[in-house]
Protein: Alpha/beta-hydrolase
Organism: Tilletiopsis washingtonensis
Amino acid sequence: MPRLSVVVLLAVVLAALSLVPAAAAAAPKCSSHGWTTQGKLRKYTQYDAAAADIAANGGWKKLPGSKAVCGAQLLRDAFVVNSQGLTQPLYVSQLADNSAVQRIVITVPAKGRDGWMYFTSIYNALQKAGATYADIDKKKIAIISTQYMNQADADAGSARATDLLFDDVSWSDGAQGRANAGGGAQLGGDQISSYEVLDKLIVWAQQRYPNAKRVVVAGHSLGGQAVNRYSVLRKEQLDAVPVYFVAGNPASWLWMETSRPRPDANCPGVDDYKFGLSAGMVPYAMADLLRLGRDGMLRRFAGRNVVLALGDKDYGAGDPSCQASVQGRSHRNRGMLFVRSITKLLGAFPAKWSYDQVSGCSHDPMCMWASELGMLRLFRDGYPGASTRVSKNASAARRRNELDEEEQ
């Protein structure tokens, strides 16, 4: 073959190959099972959550690493929460250019404290969004999943010496940490609330992604409870960009009035924190509650950017306690009645809030976040240049669900 032909052929081959790695490089190499699905615009990959071993005491033996959690890197000591060196693990997006990020999505885990699973649920939704909407660039959306640790994790071996620990799942209520860190040293954990950790994480995230235009804090189930309570109690702050709160399918809500839709005279403490504001408030918010009172807390809450997201098939109760049961029969019913209560107290549904019932979803974060409304709230609302239109089916579902508020 003449030399010129060889050169031309080689140039053609190299040009063709240069097109392939761009797509291939976007797919993270990880050990968890993945499968390909056809999206509206292109194919995309979904991943199983990484497997992890749990000890007899309920603690995690080891946190899944970056190779196992597709699209994520596990940061063990990058996020320092106090001056004594306490740390909290994070799962964060693997991105080539942090300065290109336009949107930060922070997710809070549920009862299992499996932050990697909740990273994957948001990551899978982002994969779908990128294959569905031409105006969404996955490389410009960062996901951060918090990984709260407790004493059981330290005993089982997954907590490091400087990790901040909490009692059981008290982090979801804004409780103080334990005095001892993962290695047993006294590093001031009892002086910091899990909600103060979220305050610091929002600042840390904006420093890591300096050009982001919005922060979304989202949680499902117990994570939804955490986001609901944090959105009420969060201290006034001069945020560099707007912060939005998405509470998905919580088993109970932080009720803003003393009465309940299904009263039970034999149930004590129905309005004590974490269910209400009458007593037992965590130290993080005590000063604000005393300063603002119940009405002031309500009006501050109403002025925030809040999404209440309910699966329209989520008929499970979740929390069987009487304090939760007086709020309603199920996750869905409690959320609907919470919306009714807020609307009654204020005379109208807050202008800065959104209320979605997601068609076809039960108590499933993968379903909720990857739904049309879920992708709208996490990724598309307020995204530069993105449309916020939804299909006729999703729009009709929202109209029907507004009427459903009248259900008892």
About this structure: Residues 90 and 146 are 5 Å apart (CA to CA). Confidence is low (pLDDT under 50) at residues 6-10, 12-26.
